[in-house]
Amino acid sequence: MKLNLQKSFFTETKKELLSYGNFKIEAFKYPSGVEALEVENSKCSFIFTPFKGQQIWHFKVDGEEISMQTDVKEPQNTMVYLKNYGGFMYHCGVISFGAPDSEHPHHGEIPNEIYDSAYILCGEDEKGKYICLGGELNHNTAFVRKYRFSPEIRIYENESIFKINVKLENLRSYPMEYMYLCHINFKPFDGAQLIYSAKKDSEHIKIYRTEGSEKLNKYFDELEKDITVMDTIGAEGQCYDPEICFGVKYESDENNRAYTMQYTKDGSCFVSHPADILTNGVRWISRTNNEDAMGMVLPATGEHLGYNNAKEKGQIKVLGANETLKFYMEAGYVEKEASEALKSKIEKILG
């Protein structure tokens, strides 16, 4: 069953839109005017903004918030990235992402763009009942570029894992440059371990050093001596005020997939991504009095330093005339058994 969403479905009063298996989906509109779906299954709940960027907000597992904390508590009706930055997942690109410049906004044009259409799809396969939330965004700049961006998230009724599908179509008969980053923002869990399929040396992990407080500068010095001091979350001496970014070059499995975990003995936050398509892993961590964020990997086509930097370093990707690109990521939370299996997979990749 597929339900094509209409903006008239969303009012200030929350109302049940549909139920399917263990799923319950309610529709409402924030005071800002942003339309939202509140989705619950037997394991998790989250907010999805079907027309405003197809963002995920307030991801909770067994009632506990898993997504980052900022002073932006609910979606805002703005195109300014940082004024609407409190969510769990944002699509970034397509013309550029990362640092803004005179021609390109912070993290590109799509994170807060208004979608042309959105839908809910209910289905069932060998894993059980699932829902998909997706839509289409059509961009057309005459004589320059025309593309269709069609993301979709799939989640099963008894799981807390998002399969994030991305489809990008170049609708012109000329090659098109593109950049993409998936901004996935977990909450840090003190005492957890960062486990990831990358070698822990300066060749594979780059520190983007910035000037800051004495404590921050001291922590940069420690990281340059031993990058693994960041792997225990909340360890003494760590400083992410206001933030630190890292670049991570991943090793992958036989299917070209790379893995990152925020691991605990009871279960883990995790991300998997296609290392052959999203060749750069950006790690972004911020822990201040106002923010608490563990972007343990933001899968990306290049570094986070903006279009001009990517152009200079040959990190701009090109989609051929009338060509289509498809890939997927997984992000969410896995319980103990699946967590241990994932940890073993990463150990195997690293040999």
Structure description:
This protein is mainly beta and about 350 residues long. The protein has one domain: Beta-galactosidase, Chain A, domain 5. Helix content is about 10%, strand content about 45%. The chain has three helices and 23 strands. It has helices at about 215-225, 305-310, 335-350; strands at about 1-5, 15-20, 25-30, 35-40, 45-50, 55-60, 65, 90-95, 115-125, 130-140, 145-150, 150-155, 160-170, 175-185, 195, 205-210, 245-250, 255-265, 265-275, 280-285, 290-300, 315-320, 325-335. The strands form four sheets. Strands 1, 9, 10, 11, 12, 13, 15, 18, 19 and 23 form a ten-stranded antiparallel sheet that branches. Strands 2-3-4-5-6-7 form a six-stranded antiparallel sheet, with no helix packed on it. Strand 9 (about 115-125) and strand 10 form a beta hairpin. The longest helix is centred in the C-terminal third of the chain and has 15 residues, at about 335-350.
